């Protein structure tokens, strides 16, 4: 332990009391050192405040330091918000448990506090060092003793409820974990598998394939020069059509219509000016020919849309698509990605099957080299649907594996492959276009862990019990939770 560092325990939260790392807090909250008090909520009549030396600030500083010690960096904005809210929940639990202990007649003695205090000022031999104690700031020690006194009450309830104190392998008081439960969880992670993998990103669908589709379906990308007036109901559309028949200009009538598909001048905008997109907004696709057959400056009858009604005016001749134009080709690729996903999928499945055939007849590495693909090593993980913290999860940062832990096809395939067997293509979804992957099960030897799994799991279960209790406390009628409004209100 570093000289001057002093710790105590409040529930399952480690509170760093003397030495701390300075964190930059949001400017609207300040540093917690100024006199302005910010009230984030209450437990009964007891305010949970953000001000110098408050329980909320101390709990937040503890969680911030634990975060830094774990990750070696300061939290980003969303992480800081979560840390802050956890500090709020910790403070609620602290107040509720302290009240319960005092109501039961429990008293934290001065001797207990002093004994706890002495244990943190020890020298290299493990004995109490008065010299270290004398070097510490006396005002800080007073504050620390007060915090220890308060922690003593909340710790008493935590130990009684959750059995956080043990003698040997047996926990005292509180909730217990059955041997059968611990045995099951201890073996939960025992069957781990590692894999070789290739991942074919569907967003890399080749330009030549896009162009081939475009040339075959060029009519989809014919561009129409149209103005349109849209209406929410038939009566309004018929009224406008009557005005047009009586000589009112299209432009004048357009001032009364809702033109969601148009620019400020009433002209169809991307992508609605393309044949494929224009047909999509029509209730009857057969009406498309009524619009495209209009001569220049001619106006259509009322056309029913999928949502409302419209009157079209032909401004100029249609434009055939020029796929050598970069902007047009980009529009085609967007169309293909949006509406022709099965075609793209079939293409990559065929490529993946080609890879599987070659990898099976030669080797995975050889197939990668011959087809110019990158082999991805997937670290060993267990059959862990949903990514439970009691087991090792698949590395979701690898290409195509973002949602692999909830993909039943992926998990069933991965854990039914024989040793060195190459899988059939698996279609995966992720945050982009998706991927098609191929796996090869690679046998590995799992190292025996020196960790006492039962003791570790018992501690982990106790932690979850603490978290569940803290979350449930927030639902109590005695708790006023204004955290979000206060956090964003300053």
Give a summary of the structure in a few sentences.
With 490 residues, the chain is α+β, with helices and mostly antiparallel strands.
Could you characterize what this model shows?
- It contains 17 helices and 14 strands.
- The protein has helices at residues 55-71, 77-103, 110-118, 130-135, 138-162, 179-187, 207-216, 234-245, 250-254, 275-280, 288-292, 326-339, 341-361, 364-371, 408-414, 453-473, 483-489; strands spanning 7-10, 13-16, 38-43, 46-50, 166-167, 170-171, 192-201, 223-231, 303-305, 308-319, 376-382, 426-428, 435-442, 479-481.
- Helix 1 crosses helix 2 (77-103).
- Mean pLDDT is 86; it is low at 1-25.
- A four-stranded antiparallel sheet has the order 11-7-13-12, with helices on both faces. The chain has a three-stranded antiparallel sheet with strand order 4-3-14.
- Helices cover 43% and strands 16% of the residues.
- The longest helix has 27 residues, at 77-103.
- With 490 residues, it is an alpha+beta fold.
- A hairpin with a 2-residue loop joins strand 1 (7-10) and strand 2 (13-16).
From the structure above, extract its key features.
4-stranded antiparallel β-sheet; 3-stranded antiparallel β-sheet; alpha+beta; single chain; 490 residues
Helix and strand arrangement:
Elements lengths: L6 E4 L2 E4 L21 E6 L2 E5 L4 H17 L5 H27 L6 H9 L11 H6 L2 H25 L3 E2 L2 E2 L7 H9 L4 E10 L5 H10 L6 E9 L2 H12 L4 H5 L20 H6 L7 H5 L10 E3 L2 E12 L6 H14 L1 H21 L2 H8 L4 E7 L25 H7 L11 E3 L6 E8 L10 H21 L5 E3 L1 H7 L1
Helix pairs in contact: 1-2, 2-5, 2-16, 3-5, 6-16, 7-12, 13-14
